Amino acid sequence: MNMRTRKHGETALFGALSGAVRSIAYKSAAVVGITTFASAVLASAASAQPIRHDAEHYVLLHQYAEQWAAEDKELDRRLAEIRERNDGKPPNIVYILIDDMGFGEFGMPELNKIRGGRTPSLDTLAKEGMTFTRFYAENICTSTRVAFMTGRYAVRTGMELTKVTPPEGVGFNDKEVTIAELLSNAGYTTHHIGKWHMGDIKEAYPTNQGFDYASFPMHNQVAYSFLTRDAELDARTTSFTPTTVDPDYGLDKTFRLYDWVTQVEGKRGGKLREWGIKPGEKPDIEFYKRVNDRFQEQAVESLRALASGDKPFFLNYWPQIPVAVLRSTDDGGCQTPNCGRWANAMAVVDGYIGELLAEIKKLGIENNTIVMVMGDNGPMKQDLELSGYSEWLFRGTKGQALEGGHRVGAFIRWPGAIEPGSIAGDMVFVSDLYTTFARIAGNTDGIPRDRIVDGVDQTAILLKGDTNGRRDYVHLYEVDTLKATVKQNMKIHWPPPGVNPAMAEFYNLYWDPREDNPLKYQGVWAGTPFVRMRIQHLRMKDKWPDWQPARGMPYEGVENLRPETKAMVRTWLKIYGDARDVVLGVEAIGN
Ligand SMILES: [Ca+2]
To answer: Which residues contact 99 (CB under 8 A, 6 or more apart)?
Structure first.
């Protein structure tokens, strides 16, 4: 449903190009020709119809398709050997996604020393596995989570906007084929614990997107940690809770809505139950801490239950902290020499991860379990002065198409397959995990062929190490606008309409990883190939346009809605259900 498509403003782009650049770019584009060639090569190498990639990947296939097809046979042999060593079972996958943790913030002892951070569990994981030095996430929570779940840039799914204020009535479209569905169809048992942040409507729930069991907050953690009286007293938010609303002039009683659903759990396709809150109770920072500790307990409980079964499993654990910006979270004293709020909370998350790693060992499943830990985007700029973090190796933060917004710490351990202590400098994009995990689980054929899948299979990096990557570019979006493109060590920041891309800001990321000093004359050679990349990317979007997210009734299928929540939803429906034009107005400004 809701498969309405939209245009992306390519006309404006074309208008911005100079005649000279445009004519070269058009001549070089040849999207159709490249696609046809690569498809033919791949079709002869594989029985299934090839995955439909983004345009730029076909440029590489044009050069490497035969080499990679030969290498794939070797990789398949390695994967088969690994399975044989483990009673024919593909590996379990434990994927831990940490909120707002950019590159260098954890898992690197030398950098921790510089910043006074402490993440001993992650340091150990890194030592036992592989560290990625060039891992790109999207630059904000929802987008990265969607790109992992679908293997696609979030903008293609219509889920590129981060929703924080409940209720939403919007979410992940059930037409998306998630990594949980791919793994489930490959025989995996699938659990999701923690932050979800992809919608509050029925079809967006993890239990309707491929997970056998899930426990998750209906909205994101802003609802617990920013929209509280504690946060107002701490001057983090203002004029939200009822005590701070002007009783005389605050005419619109629906401007702020309260009493949303907090956290729920349920099984595949079934009803959800809200847990941890009683009617009349208002979340505060203590509530938030209790919920986070409970998510951790549930992750450990899930691990035990999953390990006791015969099937391989996928445990998707997305902690809500370190996002917690209140002083009242600091009552445990300094967890780190840094003692910033997020550095302290990160030490708590590191303890959570340490507990899971110890449990994996205790359960005797260490050798056939992939553990991956990574951040979802760079740090939150608004809180840099209090968090204990800062922009350092890279400029920019969450929400920005700068390296600081997109480059995240990422570590993966797979005993007997990934070399301990290895470092991969290859470019990896978060959507590549979708394609790679699907392959490792034996379900590449399940990846949908009727849409563009941006994920590139990076199994070769895991099994053969550094310099075996199959990606050398990434497009960086801010919401639905393509803001920058990286190719190899070069990066362009796309200028606004009306400015010739040849005059854009170019950076050599090896010389200037902080993107501080745009290069002066790079447009003379880099302008044309970058513009060609952009045109090809957007032309493919004309043929396979971005989707819209699904829309529906918030909280459908939650069987124990509190009375106050029901009343709030009735109000919401009255406004946004009866007055459809108002809803459309809200959509138009992107709320
Ligand atoms: Ca985030």
So the answer is: 141, 195, 221, 318, 319, 320, 321, 322, 323, 375, 376
404 assigned to some structural domain: yes
> Does 485 fall in a domain?
no
143: in domain: yes
Residues with CB under 5 Å of ion ligand 1 are 99-100, 141, 376-377
Let me know how long the chain is.
591
How many structural domains compose the chain?
1
Separation of 38 CA from ligand 1 center, angstroms? 36
Relative to beta strand 130-132, strand 550-551 is: unpaired
What does the pLDDT profile of the chain (591 residues) look like in tens digits? 333 444 343 333 333 333 333 333 333 333 434 444 444 444 444 447 999 999 999 999 999 999 999 999 999 999 999 999 999 999 999 999 999 989 998 899 999 999 899 999 999 999 999 999 999 999 999 999 999 999 999 999 999 876 777 888 899 999 999 999 999 999 999 999 999 999 999 999 999 999 999 999 999 888 888 888 888 888 888 999 999 999 999 998 888 999 999 999 999 999 999 999 999 999 888 899 899 999 999 999 999 999 999 999 999 999 998 886 666 555 567 888 988 888 888 899 999 999 999 999 999 999 999 999 999 999 887 777 777 888 889 999 999 999 999 999 999 999 999 999 999 999 999 999 999 999 999 999 999 999 999 999 999 999 999 999 999 999 999 999 999 999 999 999 999 989 988 889 999 999 999 999 999 889 899 999 999 999 999 999 999 999 999 988 899 999 999 999 999 988 888 777 654 444 443 443 333
- Centre of ligand 1 from the C-alpha of residue 463, in Å: 29
Do the beta carbons of residue 211 and residue 268 sit within 8 Å? yes
Determine which helix (DSSP H) or strand (DSSP E) holds 92, and give its type and residue range: strand 92-98
Q: Are strands 92-98 and 313-318 parallel, antiparallel or unpaired?
A: parallel
Using the mean position of ligand 1's atoms as its centre, give its distance from the Cα of residue 124 in Å. 24
CATH of the domain at 372: 3.40.720.10
- Cα(138) to centroid of ligand 1, in Å? 9
99 C-alpha to center of ligand 1: Å?
Answer: 4
SS3 call for 545:
coil
